[in-house]
Design goal:
Elements lengths: L7 E13 L2 E19 L4 E5 L2 E5 L3 E6 L8 E5 L2 E13 L2 E11 L3
Length: 110
Amino acid sequence: MFQDLLTQSATFEEAQTINVGGVVQKNWILKFGNVPVRLVTNHGNAKHGAENLEKYTRADFTLFMSAFGNINEKMRVTIDGEKYEIVLVAKVHGRNGIDHLELQLNKIIT
């Protein structure tokens, strides 16, 4: 079963920009915590379907998760203490609508 493969936990944060004294600052606000996921490394170029369109991306990782919430490319995700930017959110369809999400990620190097 798909849920049994989600053996890791992720935290999703959403970017919020604020103007402080004329200087725009980006803050990260917790959106979802303790989300079951599975992170795998991509080998070469990954090909993924997104709402009946095939898209190509050169992301380093694919994150599998159940379809819930409003996950988008303006968020970042933390898994095992490592932060990743979300490059692409692909909605994978099954017989009864959206089955799960496959996110293309790149590690944030600080």
